[in-house]
Design brief:
Layout lengths: L3 E2 L18 E4 L2 E4 L15 H5 L6 E2 L23
Antiparallel strand pairs: 1-4, 2-3
Amino acid sequence: MTLSITEECISCWACEPVCPNGAIVVKKEVFRINNNLCTQCEGHEERPQCVEVCPVEGAIINMQGVAMNPPGSLTGIQPTAHPC
């Protein structure tokens, strides 16, 4: 039921203060989600608040490794294959 922060994170600090469980921690300037504390905001909000405020597509993933804000979800510009 927990989420993870990927290396795409830009350390903007938007997620840490909105986590109702205090599950987001900073270790050596890298943000991480404490698996023992993360409930994906269940019982607090409809959607995980870290996902709601994160400005980076693909920076937060679920247990299956799927981006909670997939490419194109924030910009509205869907990725396309480049003919190379």
